Amino acid sequence: MPENLFKLNAKEYILPGSRACQGCGLSLAYRYMLKALRENTIVTLPACCLCVLQGIYPSTPVMIPALNNSFASTAASASGIVAGLQALNRSDTTVVAIAGDGGTFDMGIQSLSGAAERETDFIYVCYDNEGYMNTGTQRSSATPLGAITTTTPILTKQQHKKDFIKIVEAHDIPYLAAVSPSYPIDLYEKFVKAKKIKGTRYIHMHIGCPPGWVYPPKDTVKMGRLAVETGLAVLFEVEDGKFRFTGRSKTIAQKGNRLPVINYVEKQGRFKKMNIEQLNQLQVWVDKKWDEYMRRAEG
Length: 299
Hints:
The chain is an alpha/beta fold. The chain contains twelve helices and eight strands. It has helices at 25-37, 49-54, 74-87, 102-106, 109-117, 164-169, 184-196, 210-213, 220-230, 247-255, 262-265, 276-298, and strands at 41-45, 66-68, 94-100, 122-128, 175-179, 200-206, 236-239, 242-245.
């Protein structure tokens, strides 16, 4: 299939008419992910927003085979698929496990940790929309400090987001990356690279959610860019232990023009109960993490 000016695969693997919400950031990310991975790809996923996008059997807008699994077993399901393909000598097929933050940070952590320790050969993708969005916007351990959810309606969430990327990196996997669909070329290139690497690879996608985050659906790309501009989401990759900024985050690191987090939180209804103390705490948390990344990039 010929490629366009930006060297993207021109073929579409998601047809018009999915059941995703209007303005869904996952729809964008999944589109470019599949363009990068191309044919000979099998996806396994739990009950989640992506399950809704995939549709109800036998109708689906997605032209890649997918297997539904239980909430906590996405990486275990992928491990089984890998073993089956090995038994059939199907070494040319890419296996992708993809789950939300609830199915990764919380319920899925045990099966992912086990697979990573065994160095199972698949790509694990966490699409992080910072809550259990498919079941009505409940709090997860990925939900930011100060956010309203249906399980934190009065006091908001009182804890910072779990640093799950650091947990995964501790398994010494060969490739780890963080991406955003607001920067599709960066996302595409990282999936192309991950496809060529053997062992457990992990890609973290920061995904905007209009109904859960409470912003207009037309602003999904803008919201994703603000997350990167403020340092709440960072574009980077770690290959064989070596950290490097990529894309827009690399430019921000070079120029030192990162925006204050208020530019991001003030545009989302989920932060409407955030007080000034929480805002300051969030800024300090982001600054600390950014400084850690800067030290790693310089080292």
